[in-house]
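Sequence in, structure out.
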Amino acid sequence: MEPCWEPGEPGEPGEPGWARPGGALGGRGLLALAVASGAAAWATWAVLLMPGFRRVPLRLQVPYQPSSPRQVANALALLRGRAGKTVDLGSGDGRLVLEAHRQGLRPALGYELNPWLLCLANYRAWKAGYHGKVSFMKKDLWKVNLSDCHNVIVFLAPSVKPPLATKLLAELPDDARVVAGRFPFPSWTPSSTLGQGLEQVWAYDMKEVRREAQGSAQGSRI
């Protein structure tokens, strides 16, 4: 007599090994898992991240990468005791702006193009009790005027730093301080630094940066 197989019974003919309880993933199972993971990653990019890049030139695009707790702590440590308007250029989920406000740097605001990250930042502000006390604005950092900013936080890619340095030199007041995370400004000498490796941050005082830039310009003319 032929054995009788009930539908859905583990071990029935033709059932893939990866679908059986306790079965090992075979080649097809691994392939299916890889395809599903890739599709999920693409969907996350398309829905959450890509909207903020559509109107930004390719060389100036910066992928979202949240700052670690240590990076946040180091960045704010280099701004401790300062006053004046504090901005985070490319503020992502808002964690640096929220911590700046928490430590007394007010007003604190962030510029971000991605609408999903702006929603997340505003939710985090509401959850922390800072709704209406901090601001997250959907603006292109290359088009905003930074002339009234005294503390600027920059956690951006290396390719963005040279053109951003030109903008900061042209717009920031002499008493402004710029704090860069992950990557330093290649042509600037930091006033101070904190941390090691990926946790390292650099502080630049604009008065000193301008003095150095003017000295280099005069030296090149001699």
